[in-house]
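Before the break, one more example. Copy the sequence into your notebook; we will annotate it together after we see the structure.
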Amino acid sequence: MKARVKKFFYYIWDKKLTVSRAAIILGATALLSNVLGLFRDRLIAGHFGASNQTDIFYASFRIPDLIFNLLILGALSSVFIPIFIEKMTKEKEDEANHLASSFLNFLLICTLIFGIVIFLLAPKLVPFLLPGFFNQNIHTSYNVFQTTVNLVRIMLLSPIFFAISGIFGGILNSHRRFIAYSLAPIIYNLAIIFSMVFLVGKFNPEIYAPAVGVIIGAFLQVIIQLPSTLRTGWRWRPIIDFKQGEIARMVKMMTPRTLAIGASQINLLVDTIVLSFIAGGITEFQYANNIQTVPTVIFGIAIATAIFPALAASYARKDMKEFMNGFSWSARRILFFMIPATVGIIVLRAQIIRLIFGIGNFDWNATYWTTKALLFFAIGLVAQGLIPLLLKAFYAIHDTKTPFFIAVIVMVVNAVLSITLPFIPSLGLGVAGVALAFSIAGIVNVILLAIWLHDKVGILDPNHKIFESTFRLIVASVAMGFAIHYSLYLFDIVANTSKVAGILIQTSGAIVLGSVTYFILAWLFKCEEIKFILEKIRR
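Here is what the structure looks like once it is written out:
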């Protein structure tokens, strides 16, 4: 028994993974995390519906998320991991660990300063964030304005914990210890679920409960990664070393990335402002977005995260052939999953929304608009899956400026379309107009990133493997779409689809038949990716 427990913790804290195994582990845990995330959303939707409480809850995320994305995500994804790996490649582990402590302390101080400023300015920022919301004549048993301000202030704690867990994750990724890192978002969602189950009745208004769950989850993300991080040999030191010049170098490199993320955050703020003029719009948009994000996280981000250390190491060795092979390998596997996911979501969008959110206080009107938004999100799904890989490729070659310039262009495209599309009477898009703007901007983003990366490193598909694979996958996915569509009628005969159990049988059966169709066709077309998957299953 003791040996089994020891082996269990070895896999969580010490096990190093190859790129392919890391991609599988990250994808599997991302799937579990997203299933839990959808269950979390189901609990919130069932209890609160698409109401002003859920609108202010999701809107209150925007400001803490702004701090996280600007200061932490930009720094970790674009500069910390490549430089940390560079030092590890040159066998300078002590310098790498010294840098990690120094940069962590630097991020914490910056996060605290921004948090204090926003805490004080929250009463001024909230009306700007929700102008349409506060113009509505809303009669509630609580102070809407003060509740929103309080939620913003409560959730300002989360970026502090995310900064720590982000550095831990960067260290673990560099050491290719992905398991504890991949468990962090699962713990985060479980904490919010716990808060919805046990804490809702403890607060007035009740929407404070999931906000408390956010803080608990962010803290637990640190705890789950701490043992594995310490076992790499890293130890925290109370230092910020500017003498070596590494902090200044990293700040200089992360500035374009931070500005690029700032552009995307402006898009989210614009979307929130626009949606605040539509009752329940923020909630409906958020739920549709959460669903369309699932395949991107499971496949796009997981594969890009797994290959990133290898891309950075290849560039550090100036082995561009290996770099391009790694990029092509990752792109084809992302497309293998994202193309059928797009078709599947388009065909099954109504069943998906009814299954996840069609309960409690989430009424038919909210279901209709969430379904419509999901349709237009699906249009840009393949682009969203490829963007993480393209960005990682730029960061691996230490180029953060090009993605920034592209992000500015995309920001303008998204902002213009978000302001116009929802309010064109002849289109009648409403919330779905903002989703369509998001998808169009994503497609523009992936095209521009691919063009500029080609200019930087050369031909991205020298052997035409990506092109050939994409053509086969599109044919297989279209056939899968027809199989799913007509199987819905078949299962409608044998199952009572007016009930949740009947919808579950119909949807599950259609997914199984569609998946079998897709995998058989992929095998007949001799797709390299299906051979890879079958090999992993056999192992």
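The longest helix spans residues 52-89. The chain has a mean pLDDT of 84. Try to locate both features in your own notes.
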